[in-house]
């Protein structure tokens, strides 16, 4: 994929059905993301948004490493986050991409450049980032304990974010898509919803698990509107801003995954 990946990373080129049929699951997934990038470039955002980071551009190399390594096909479960965090995917190009988990457990490599317009308090240092993102550390740390090796987790599951952009105010405050002006949020999510539906169909996903209520509800709306018969469930978001998550997130999520019939897939010897 590396030749095609480098070519496509700098300018999306639509493929005809015959060409698409020859792509691997990872290539199909990356193609969906690159097409989404093209559509999102056409959008503009007003206050309170001042900075927009696009890790699927400046961290494309590490993101592609993640997808090519772990998007294998035959994975029935898609864990879906909402959008990148400032010390997770914004730095690494990997969903919930807390540095230690990305480097030491997922063993992702590659160069990360920088967005053209950076907030002075939110510099991108890539895989050299020294700050840990709590949400990502909890998310991947839980599955490391559960599965031991990444191969067991990714045999059945893949992890993705609905929206690949991170938004910040003039102060550097992280802004989630629900905090955007209504018309701008609707335009953004319309494109992201379409890409999600394309990814779910391309990978043959049968269950989407939203990480957090917002991602769960958005996935349910998008897939239902598109007439895609996929089960949509949700788990608690691991954010430290969620008081419940700070009281034992792992126990809550383990119980939920057992209820959904997912836990046995990840712990079976």
Automatic annotation (TrEMBL):
Keywords: DNA damage, DNA repair, DNA-binding, Hydrolase, Nucleus. Signal peptide: none annotated. The keyword Membrane does not apply. It comes from the Eukaryota. It is found in: Nucleus. One of its GO terms (molecular function) is single-strand selective uracil DNA N-glycosylase activity. PANTHER family: SINGLE-STRAND SELECTIVE MONOFUNCTIONAL URACIL DNA GLYCOSYLASE (PTHR13235:SF2). This is Single-strand selective monofunctional uracil DNA glycosylase. It comes from Takifugu flavidus.
